[in-house]
Amino acid sequence: MSEHTLAVSDSSFDKDVLKASGLVLVDFWAEWCGPCKMIGPALEEIGKEFAGKVTVAKVNIDDNPETPNAYQVRSIPTLMLVRDGKVVDKKVGALPKSQLKAWVEGAL
């Protein structure tokens, strides 16, 4: 992770995502996932561009199996937008940065 993304675990998901203020973009990913690696840099940039407005949280599904199971994540990357503890939107698959940015802007 970097200064613009937050590594989230099963044990920290409640505090870091559900109780966070503002919008949280959750990225369910894994080291072995090619499409996850493709969108990683775009998510970093979104985290930087929307600093203070959006938190980009990354959940490694191999290290943290409970949270993806609870949210029925069946394929990765799965991206969720969470506000006030509720999932407001969800996307599955790799998208170009322009589409990811527009998706986030639409939720702000």
From TrEMBL:
Q: Tell me which residues this entry annotates as catalytic.
A: C33, C36
Q: Which molecular function GO terms apply here?
A: protein-disulfide reductase activity
Write out the entry's keywords from A to Z.
Disulfide bond, Electron transport, Redox-active center, Transport
**Source organism, top-level taxon:** Bacteria
Pfam families per UniProt: Thioredoxin
Gene3D superfamilies linked to this entry: Glutaredoxin
Q: Which GO terms describe its cellular component?
A: cytosol
Q: Which PROSITE patterns match?
A: THIOREDOXIN_1 (PS00194), THIOREDOXIN_2 (PS51352)
Annotated positions for site Deprotonates C-terminal active site Cys: D27
Q: Which GO terms describe its biological process?
A: cell redox homeostasis
Cystine connections: C33-C36
Q: Where is this site: Contributes to redox potential value?
A: G34, P35
* Stored InterPro entries: Thioredoxin, Thioredoxin-like_sf, Thioredoxin_CS, Thioredoxin_domain
Q: Please report the stretch or stretches of sequence annotated as the Thioredoxin domain.
A: 1-108
UniProt cross-references to PANTHER family, sorted A to Z: GEO12009P1 (PTHR45663)
Family of this protein: Belongs to the thioredoxin family.
Name the record gives this protein: Thioredoxin
The protein's organism comes out as Acetobacter pasteurianus NBRC 3278
GN (gene name): trxA
